[in-house]
Amino acid sequence: MPNQRGMQKIEFYTSLHEIRELYDSGYVVLKILYEEMKKRRGWEMSYWSFCKYAKEELPIKKNIMHTSKEETPKIEKSDDEPVIAKADFSGGERFSPHTVELDSSRIL
After folding, report:
1. Where does the chain have alpha helices with state H?
2. Closest Cα to residue 34, out of 19, 14, 20?
3. Within 13 A of 98's CA, how many CA atoms are on the CB side?
């Protein structure tokens, strides 16, 4: 096919049924699926364009980030002393004085 505007999209969508069959049969790596379709159909489509359309049409699993259970820092309180928090470097959000209400009477 001549390389005209929109021809890559046409190449992809005319082969979508075959792409889905290959994906369901085990071609889940997009680079390998692209190379196979390029051999079969003689595509002039770029790999970047193929990935763009494949991510829209195929049920590709997104990267799942496993987050650990966040623990709040252990705070020891007494009535007359300022709040003392033990450092917890296990992750989570960092302290930002701009997002927390501070009691100016308790600041040393």
Report:
1. 7-14, 16-24, 30-41, 47-57
2. 19
3. 0
Rounded Cα distance between 72 and 60, Å, is 35
pLDDT in tens, 2-14: 567 888 899 999 9
Instruction: Give the tokens for residue 77.
Output: 């309180």
The answer to which of 1-5, 16-20, 101-105 has the lowest mean pLDDT is: 1-5
Task: Fill in the amino acid letter for 89.
Answer: F
Residue 76 CA to residue 49 CA, distance in Å, equals: 57
In whole angstroms, what is the distance from residue 44 CA to residue 21 CA?
21
With residue 75 as reference, give the H or E element that holds it.
strand 75-76
Name every residue whose Cβ is closer than 8 Å to that of residue 9 and which is 6 or more positions away in sequence: 49, 53
CA 32 to chain CA centroid, nearest Å: 21
pLDDT digits 0-9 by tens, 54-76: 989 988 766 555 555 666 656 56
Please report, for the chain, the start and end positions of each structural domain, with discontinuous segments joined by +.
Answer: 7-57
N residues, the chain:
108
